[in-house]
Amino acid sequence: MQHQVLFLGSDESIYGSAREIHEAYGIKSTILAAANPMTATRNSEIVDIQLVPGINDDPIFITEITKIGQALKAAGKSTILVGSGDKYAALIAKHKTALSEYFVVPYVDYDRMIELNHKETFEPLAAAYGLDMPATKRISAADVTREVVSPWGYPVILKSDNSVEWMDLYFPGHKKIYFINSTAELNEVIKLAYQNGYTSTFTMQDMIPGDDSYERNLTAYIDQNHKVRVISMGHALIEDPGPQGRGNHMAIMPDYNEDIYRQYVGFLESLNITGFANFDLKYDERDHKFKVFEMNVRLGRSNFWASLNGVNWMRYLISDYDGTLGNDDVVFANADQSKWQVWMAISPRLFKKYVRKNPATDLALKLLDEGKYGYTYKYAADWNYQRFMNYWRANRNFAKYYAKYFKP
Questions:
Q1: CATH assignment of 212-405, among 3.30.70.420, 3.40.640.10, 3.30.470.20, 2.60.40.1180
Q2: Among 161, 213, 279, 384, which is most buried by a count of CB atoms within 10 Å?
Q3: pTM of the model
Q4: Could you tell me if 6 and 99 are in contact, meaning their C-beta atoms sit under 8 angstroms apart?
């Protein structure tokens, strides 16, 4: 292992990546956090957490990370920089040129990131390549002065096109995703958002029928030479039901679809990018197509579901820059169903109580009964009393949360 990884953030995504490094190489990872660590990394013995107040925003970010990079370079340490979530990814991409003097930066540049992450610029690229998408309509601040009506009827989905700006806002009624049921509700939300300082656009989207189990997650690693080396598809089973967490997967089972794999490998390689990419898809039974909602050029919060099923993302990343990845063909993950495990963020008891019954969840329940499941957080090599209590409290809170917000 010639390259080490420096992580920014302390959430579940980062813990999953640090766990992958510990499993593959047996070493601790260093994490920089702006505040006290989140539950996922708290009381962990496989990470070294260094608090750097304000590092999650400029100008402190570029000042402090430059100092750290200079020290690492002077010590002869080759370091790959990996951040959690949209905000750290955007900061890294924004300063990619400067940071590349001290770090390996496996991200696209900032303008390209905005083009791929924002729905209004991603959609033409996806359409040109022939990717299927739900019908959409763009909404801007100019629409506050007129009545907006859905052309498809209701319900519809309304989501910010700028997740970094949106998540920095808070006001009564603020949600990650809105499920809109009427014209009156649609216009109320639009006015509320722009009155409270939002400046970017929204996407209004035709709501594809079907529960959480119609959704898929597709994640890939693209190497330095812009070739996809591995791609993995996950079958979402149940989501976070709350207003701020809606859209976050709480249980994922592997899936395998060679046609989708080939199509998205071709799309990714046509973009001439490097690093991680993930897509949210949903199966539309009206025309039997998988439709893409969005693309992110980073790992997702729940990316460890793929590692649980044999894809160690950090091993691919480190091997790429160590020069040991080789020239094998792209790996289409999850071909052997006998090896499938269900990734869980909630307890099996809670999952069984709230999951909607269908053939996919029937298979998941069978895997649970066979003990074929796991968590990002519960790692035998990093299990202690404090982490057990954190886990217990989290599950108690999830139980209250589902009882309050879940709608059958």
A1: 3.30.470.20
A2: 279
A3: 0.91
A4: no
